[in-house]
Design brief:
- There is one protein chain.
- This protein is α/β, with parallel strands linked by helices and 378 residues long.
- The protein contains 13 helices and 12 strands.
- It folds into 2 domains: 132 residues, Alpha-Beta Complex (Aspartate Aminotransferase, domain 1); 237 residues, Type I PLP-dependent aspartate aminotransferase-like (Major domain) (Aspartate Aminotransferase, domain 2, 3-Layer(aba) Sandwich).
- The strands form 3 sheets. A 7-stranded mixed beta sheet has the order 2-8-7-6-5-3-4, sandwiched between helices. It has a 3-stranded antiparallel beta sheet with strand order 9-10-12. It has a two-stranded parallel sheet with strand order 1-11.
- The radius of gyration is 21 Å and the shape is globular.
- It starts with a strand and ends in a 6-residue tail after the last helix.
Length: 378
């Protein structure tokens, strides 16, 4: 089986799995307890927090552990708006992950002033459009770092400067789920990440909140995470995340080179086929681990199942939107519609993927296209 859907989730590394197992079966104590074994676990969690915070060039107190990207994105928004006395302008983009896009749309239906920015054909935000949308009443801006479907990269540092110059009181949040540990740290007020995109288990992630940002936090209860996100500390998840992130940090450049080589190889192989189009940024401009291609004359969902039968696992877009039929919001925003949208497939890679797998995948795709295109509608 060839797995090219690593933007949906990744296999947990053996080292991260062993770490989680240790904190489930040996050092299983609740770090909120007062006896010495629990205090030792609390120290371990605090050490992990400090190491992860360093990836943001931040202080440990600026990092809140959560259940993952969706929770982080949701509480970034709700926790920022809660202290506000009046409704403000909220700015986001048309290509955000559903965990950013849907909560903001819900606020719009309740009377909040929401502006949804368009993107260019590569899926990137236009800085001038953002600047024009900013007002003194802007309170929250959320722009993703890396697009999860086409791999485009936004200049978060540059966009942050624009926001602070024109709306200095606005909170700037970035969904970094597809970028964390893979790309260099960026300047923002809040940054979300998730462990299962980095070979850590599902159910653990975090939210960076810059010191000084007015933030009411998320769920209430026992006061964990500096009283900003209550709930029993997920020690196995946090410590496994720490292990996975340490592995990624120690091999970052090598990992990126491996994934870039696989992406380039698959792109070269597929470009030789008839009626194939690249979606999003050029191969060089996009991240090394996401490739989106359209295969004209077939429906992406049909091709996906054909490839699954051959032993290749891919996707037609975000896993969180896979069960919602209809138009692809991200591709539509980029101007990719009709037959080209219908035939879009996303390939996403991890450091364990190989050029040989890329060649084998291209062969499977060619074989499937030869069969499926015979049934092309006239």
């Amino acid at each position: 089986m060839i797995y090219f859907d690593n933007s949906a989730t990744t296999v947990v590394s053996s080292e991260a799995a062993q770490t989680a197992l240790r904190y489930m079966t040996q050092d299983f104590y609740n770090p909120a307890a007062a006896y010495s074994p629990a205090v030792a676990v609390e120290r371990d969690v605090n050490s992990a927090r400090a190491r992860l915070a360093s990836a943001f060039r931040a202080e440990p107190s600026e990092l809140i552990f959560t259940s993952g990207g969706t929770e982080s994105n949701n509480i970034a928004l709700s926790g920022t708006l809660a202290p506000m006395r009046e409704k403000c302008r909220i700015i986001t983009t048309a290509v955000e992950h559903p965990s950013v896009y849907e909560p903001i749309l819900a606020l719009k239906s309740r009377g909040w002033d929401v502006v949804v920015l368009g993107v260019d054909t590569a899926g990137r935000v236009d800085a001038k459009e953002l600047e024009n949308a900013l007002t003194e009443n802007t309170g929250y801006v959320s722009i993703m770092h890396v697009n999860n479907e086409v791999g485009s990269v936004n200049d978060i540092d540059g966009l942050y400067r624009i926001v602070k110059a024109k709306a200095p009181n606005a909170v700037f949040h970035s969904d970094g789920v597809q970028a964390f540990m893979k790309l260099s740290p960026v300047k923002c007020d809040m940054y979300s990440f998730s462990g299962h995109k980095l070979h850590a288990p599902k159910g653990v992630g975090g939210l960076f909140v810059r010191k000084g940002v007015r933030f009411a936090g998320g769920q209430l209860g026992g006061g964990q995470e500096n009283n900003l996100r209550s709930g029993t500390t997920n020690v196995p998840g946090i410590m496994a995340l720490d292990t996975a992130c340490t592995q990624y940090a120690n091999n970052r450049e090598a990992n990126l080179q491996k994934m870039r080589a696989v992406k380039q190889r698959l792109y070269n192989d597929l470009s030789r086929l008839r009626d194939v189009r690249l979606n999003g940024p050029s191969v060089e401009e996009g991240v090394p681990y996401i490739l989106n291609m359209s295969f004209l004359g077939v429906r992406g969902e049909v091709l996906l199942h054909s490839l699954m039968d051959k032993g290749l696992l891919v996707s037609t877009g975000s896993a969180c939107a896979a069960r919602h039929r209809g138009k692809n919001r991200i591709l539509t925003a980029m101007g990719i519609t009709g037959e080209r949208q219908d035939g879009a497939i996303r390939f996403s890679f991890c450091p364990g993927n190989t050029a040989a797998e890329a060649d084998a995948a291209a062969q499977m795709i060619e074989e499937s296209l030869l069969v499926l295109r015979r049934f092309r509608r006239r």
